[in-house]
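FAQ: What does the model actually see?

It sees only this:
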Amino acid sequence: MSDHVFSPGEVATLWKEACGDLQTQLTPAVYNTWILSNPLTQVSIINANQVAATFSCPTAFHATNLKRNLYTQLKLALEKHLELPVELIFQIGVGSKTNLGTTPKPKAAEPQPPKSDFSTVSQTLLTPAQPTNETRLEAPYGRPSSQFFQSGPPPQRISPTVDELFSPNNLERTLRDQAEFKAKRVGLRPDYTFKTFAVSTSNEMAHAASLAVSKNPGGAYNPLFLYGGVGVGKTHLMHAIGYNILQTTPDTNIVYCTGEEFTNEIVEAIQSKRALNFKNKYRHHTQVLMIDDVQFLAGKNAVQEEFFHTFNALIKQSAQIILTSDRPPHEINLLEDRLRSRFEAGLMIDIQQPSFELRTAILLIKTKASGIDLPMNLAQMIAAKVDSARKIEGIINLLRSKQELEHRTIDQALIEELLRLEGTKKPTMLKVQPEEIIKTVANHFRIKQSAIRGKSRLKELVTARHIAMYLLRQELKLSLEEIGKWFSNRDHTSVLHATQKIEDQVVINDLIQQDVSALRMTLTAISH
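And it is asked to produce this:
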């Protein structure tokens, strides 16, 4: 008789239950990167004491890392719900013939996780499972056996040859996968690359310098200081540098953070007496340090003191430093002279607002990356009316939603409709009090008002706090100083950074966009 094979619905139910357990055990970054991208696709009962669980992995790199780092967690999560020993198989590509794993065989002892290096993977030979005599199996607790098992052919499992596994195309793909994984772990956006950056006279020097730094980090342009207004491409270039370095040398230790995150880490290190951990991260192990919005350090004496020593230590060991700011060093008030002089000792580049031609190019590049076919004449129509790169991203998001959700055709009529909406946008000026906005945000995120208004730096609290500040600024037009008073007397630079951060995220982060939209709807209902 053939193996018992779960139906697709049963596999989906089992995987959902296992994911529920895994999500509580793993960090969000690990869960989202490794669990969600490598789904369970097939489950077969080999005999009364053995189950084969097959996972679909996009690349050999994903399969190898799952076996190395998450084999035990996956195995235990499935065994908890199946109540049978489980052997894991990692299949490369949906419907692919290439698999990494071992053919399950009846065993008395628990199977051990296989070795994780590529030599072991390449030597693994997988053959189709042999039919076994029919065995009456009892379903796991709470599952009727007539619905839980189905008869069907066993999964075909054929191993890659050494030539296939180490072919130039596969090795190049593996390096690219490593770079993307490392970039996400560092905090870089893989879509912010040099290929997706539109170049014109307003930013060509910044682009050329960034490309040079990515090819020779720690060389002539150190530090590289990029400055300019909102939406001119500073962060894009910074991420592109990091991604390019990782594509060439994936083992490079890159540290990326915002000025606010750097400040928070210093404060937490001092409070928890873990200054050594902080120094190890930023000084002793870092090869490339990237700080976005470095102007946030201004006016914070202890932070500037620590950054001064970190800066000197990294320059001494030829590590690359890349900084961005909304203004040049000499215009950053309350920045210590010794830091200002060090920033100015490197290469400083002013990035201007994008021209009409550049805005058109940005539209064409980003719509193509989003799978939108936007003709040149329509791109020029948008570029003529929208002068901010940040607003351009908003228009592209609207185009994508119209195309995917409403199945609209991208034509002149639709573009004119979106431009009219953009032109008629006005502040809502809700008739609510500041405390009502803070209360609404607290209820939305299910946290206490005192926590939002306090000084805790837990990530979920910081996000809620920033959104509350953003809404107070946008909807009630409060000054930065007035908003600061509602949040433990924070200074205006902290409030400015928070509101600008949410303004950026509303354009590029779907979850933040949904939160802000839902809060605005709730506040509108309250104000009427």
